[in-house]
TrEMBL record:
NCBIfam families in UniProt: PRK09189.1
Protein's UniProt name: Uroporphyrinogen-III synthase
GO BP field: protoporphyrinogen IX biosynthetic process; uroporphyrinogen III biosynthetic process
Highest taxon in the source lineage: Bacteria
EC number of the protein: 4.2.1.75
Annotated catalysed reactions: hydroxymethylbilane = uroporphyrinogen III + H2O
UniProt entry keywords in alphabetical sequence: Lyase, Porphyrin biosynthesis
Record-linked InterPro entries: 4pyrrol_syn_uPrphyn_synt_sf (IPR036108), 4pyrrol_synth_uPrphyn_synth (IPR003754), UROS/Hem4 (IPR039793)
Pathway field: Porphyrin-containing compound metabolism; protoporphyrin-IX biosynthesis; coproporphyrinogen-III from 5-aminolevulinate: step 3/4
Residue ranges annotated for the Tetrapyrrole biosynthesis uroporphyrinogen III synthase domain, each copy included: 14-231
Length: 234
């Protein structure tokens, strides 16, 4: 199958290798690129002392750039969405890492069962589900925006090359923002409409909400919000 990956380049390369190992042909079309602010992350860590939360592996990549500045904080409890992000944090040296298997709301419940004060290392733009869950549970928290997902506008030649190489079988969507970016590009939206039957595979229900109504019949949602479950839909 020819599968289009819409993740940022750093993550997309890993996904592409997984797809090749499964016998598929990956095509990469990054629609966002991360811009890190390690200074903001370092300042937030230095001014707090409690638990840390991350909802994306991108925040862990920001932390990896801190080097020795991170060492005094590795004993702090860290809560993550998804085992992949949790494992990335463990690889950095964090010694007490817990992960939720669902979305931001699930992570808020996990945090609420253990602590009362929290530093959230966040990106922008982002869903508000984690913060809303923390407020509902009465958990004190501060937010440090340590990375920004900057849009990338694909050019006409790049889009043409994807669809000219043969029939596209599926598109992988990992975030609602990326799906909105994708369908905001006229050429991509028209190409999917013209090539009927292309499967639109979404990491979660929230992501699927960004699929246009006319194409919802082609959408499928991963049983669990992780890449293994998403790729199982192929």
């Amino acid at each position: 199958m020819r599968v289009l990956v819409t993740r940022p380049a750093h993550s997309a390369e890993k996904t592409a290798q997984r797809l090749r190992d499964m016998g598929h042909e990956p095509l990469l079309l990054p629609l966002r690129q991360p811009v890190h602010d390690s200074t903001a992350a370092a300042a937030a860590l230095a001014s707090t002392s409690g638990a840390i939360a991350v909802t994306s592996a991108e925040a862990v990549r920001v932390l990896s750039a801190l080097g020795e500045q991170l060492h005094p904080h590795l004993a702090r409890p860290l809560f993550a969405v998804g085992e992949t992000t949790a494992e990335a944090a463990r690889s950095l040296g964090f010694r007490s890492v817990a992960s939720s298997t669902g979305n931001g709301s699930d992570l808020a419940e996990l945090v609420g069962a253990h602590i009362e004060d929290l530093l959230y290392l966040a990106g922008t733009p982002r869903a508000e589900t984690f913060e809303a869950g923390l407020r509902e549970l009465g958990i004190r928290f501060s937010v440090a925006e340590c990375y920004r997902m900057q849009p990338i506008a694909p050019g006409p030649a790049e889009i043409e090359a994807i669809f000219a190489g043969g029939r596209l079988d599926a598109v992988l969507f990992y975030s609602r923002q990326t799906a909105e970016d994708f369908f905001g590009v006229t050429e991509l939206r028209l190409a999917l409409s013209e090539q009927s039957g292309i499967r639109l595979l979404c990491l979660s229900e929230a992501v699927a909400q960004a699929i246009p109504a006319a194409l919802k019949k082609n959408a499928a949602i991963a049983p669990m919000p992780d890449e293994k479950s998403l790729l199982s839909l192929l």
